[in-house]
Amino acid sequence: MGLDSAIYLLFLGFVAVVHTWIPGRWRVTALLGASLIFYAASSINYLILLLGLCSFNYGAVSYLSRILDQRRRTCIFAGAVMANLTALIAFKYAGAFIGEGLARFGWHGQGTEVIPWVIPLGLSYFTLQMLACVTDAYRRTWKLDQGFTQFVLFGLFFPQISSGPIPRAERLLPQLASGGCPTAEDRLAGLRLIAYGLFKKYVVANRLNEYVSIIFTVPSGIGTLPALLACGFNALQLYADFSGYVDIAIGSARLLGIRLNPNFDRPLSSTSVTELWRRWHMTLSFWLRDYLYMPLLIRIRIFGKLGVVLTLVITFAICGIWHAATWTYLLFGISQGLAMSVEFLTKSWRAKRLKRLPKRLVAWAGNIYTLGFFALAQVLFRAANLSQARGIYSRMFHLQMSGMFTASPEGKPYFLALDCAAIGVGIGVAFFYHRTSDRPTSTPWFVLLCALSILFFGHLGSAHFIYAAF
C-alpha cells in the first residue's frame, strides 16, 4: 500500500474520520489497529516478526529503565543491540552475501546472481528506531513511561514505518500515548503537506525518472550534455521523491494530531556538504551523529583532527552500506565523509581567505560547489553497479555534444521539454507553498494548484518511492 496510491488515501481518510469521531480513550487502539492493517497488507508473516521484535525491545527498554545494576544493564543493552542488528543483517544482507559466496564456487549459472530475498517493509528504519530507544534507556537520557500497546504503536505507526522520518521515543511516544487530538489547523496543514508530497512525486520525481532511467540504462550511447542533464535530474528526482514521501507521511500523521520530526530543511540551498547533511534526511543524519559519530569520536579523539576525519569517513561508509551492501553505496558514503573531512580541515583557511569577498558571492559559489558535488555523488547512489557509474562519468567528461535528444523516450525532444517544464512548475509551486505556509486559509487554493499541476504535468506511472527499498 504505497503512500501515493489511491488505496492508501482512501485508507487514510477512513482512519482520520474514525479517529475524529471515536472517544479519546479508544484512539490509541484505533491507531494501533490501523497500523496493523497497513502492515498486514504488505505481509502477515513480517508483521509477526516485527511484533516479536517490538515485544523484545519493550522488555529490554523496561528492564533498562528500572534496573540499577550496571553490569546487568550492560549485558541487556549489548544483547538488545545484537538482536536488532542480527535481524537487520539476516534480512537485508544475507541473500547478497550467500549468493556471492555460491557464485565464487561456480554454483550459479551466470556466476553473478544473488538469492532473491524479500526485506520486511521498513525494517531498516524500524531497527534504527529501536536501537535509539535501547541506547537512550541505557544512557538514562530517556525513561519508558508508556505501556506495551503504546510502544508497539510507536514501532509500527503506519505513516512513517515505510521510510521514516526516524522518530525519537521521547518526542513521539507521549503523543501516541495520548491518542492524538487534531485541531482544524492540524487538518489543514496535513492536507497541504499531502498535496505537496503528491505533487513532488508525480510532477517532478516521476517525470524526471523517465529521462534519467534511459540515460543510466544505456550510458555508452549518449553525449556529454545528456549525461550532465541526467546527473542533475537524478539528484532533483531523488530529492523530490524522498521529500515527497516524507511530506505525505508527516501530513498523514498531522491529520491524526501527531507531529513527526521534519526530515528536510531546504537542503538544495546549502553552501557546503556538511550543511547539506544537516538539512537532508535530518532524522538519519542526527541518528548517525548521536549514536555512531559521537561515540566513535570519543574513543579516538586522542588522534585530534585525524580522529575527526576517520570518524567522518567510517560513519558515512556505514551510512552507505546501510542503504545496501554494494560497492556503489559504499563509495557514495565514503565520498560524503571525505568531502566533509576536507571542509573540516580547511575551515580556518577558508574563513581567512574568503572574508574579504562579498558574502553573497561566497554563498553562491558554495551552493554551486555543493550541488555539483552532490549531483556527481548521486550517480553512485543511482547506478546499479560500478560499471554503469563509470559509463555515466566517462560520458560526462568525454566532451561530445551530439546526441542530445537521442536518449529521450522514442527519440522525441519534447519529452525533455516536459522535464524542464516540470522543474519550472516545481519551483513555482514551492515558492507558493513557502510564501503561504503561515496562511491556513490558502490551503484549498494550494491543494487545487497541486491537483491541476498533477493533471496537466504529472506522470502517473507505477514508479515506487525510491527510499521504500531501504
What does this structure look like?
- With 470 residues, the protein is mostly helical.
- The chain folds into two domains: 176 residues, no CATH class; 284 residues, no CATH class.
- The protein is 71% helix and 0% strand.
- Helix 13 runs antiparallel to helix 14 and helix 16 crosses helix 17.
- The longest helix has 34 residues.
- The protein is globular and about 65 Å long.
- The two termini are 16 Å apart.
- About 2% of the residues have low confidence.
Concise description?
With 470 residues, this protein is mainly alpha-helical.
Q: Which overall shape is indicated by the principal axes computed on the Cα atoms?
A: globular
Strand percentage lies at: under 5%
Radius of gyration: 23 Å
Mean pLDDT: 87
Please provide the count of β strands.
0
The class by helix and strand makeup works out as mainly alpha
CA-CA gap between termini:
16 Å
The helix content, as a percent range, equals over 70%
The stretches of 5 or more residues where confidence is low (pLDDT under 50) are 109-116
| SSE order, one letter for each helix or strand | HHHHHHHHHHHHHHHHHHH
